Amino acid sequence: MYRQKLKYNNLQDLNPEKSQLINFEKIILNEDLSEVADKFIESTFFEDHFMRKDAIDRLLDFTFFKVQTGIYDIFHLAYPVKRMHDKILEERIIKLINELMYPEIVLRLLKFFTRNIHDSDTNLHLANLITSESIIRSIYETFILFRKDIFIYDIEKKCLNVKRIQQFSSQSDYNLSLPLDACARMKYILEFFDVKYDMRHIYTAEDIQMVKIEAAG
To answer: 135: part of which helix (H) or strand (E)?
Structure first.
């Protein structure tokens, strides 16, 4: 009886109208993950402004904080990553991201990666939790989209796709949404995935070159 009451109270913390007050650690460690994923996804329907962070955005912020304050786990010097101190929490978040919250999580991940413009190397801390090939493919396809935009002359059209993914206001500074910069951030993540998993069945090192060099003759 007590366990049922405790469970009920924990899930009540997932108030769609107060996503900033969610105790993510308590809920993720103590509740059924399928129910938690459903609640997070359900909460997004209550957000009435595209620029406001919903529960899924805040889950990624919480996750990033936990890995950012964790310990280094460097398997390649060019791609340093951090892991959470709490391995059980980390395992449960990995399941949420890669299994239970797909595909809703994809746009939020893309938004997080493209918005992190001042300390982009730390994107790897979050990327290291991604194991789903479907999510990795989405990141690759977004990279291709941004790469095409680099050569658009009109600045408004050039930055349109990046701004849409970032969910920045149309009035925001274009320098925050240049596709060349966004491409470079995505390329670093894709290189990391290729080193970690070997992604040749989805893309090769040549596929993620910033500029295609045609052979002479």
So the answer is: helix 133-149
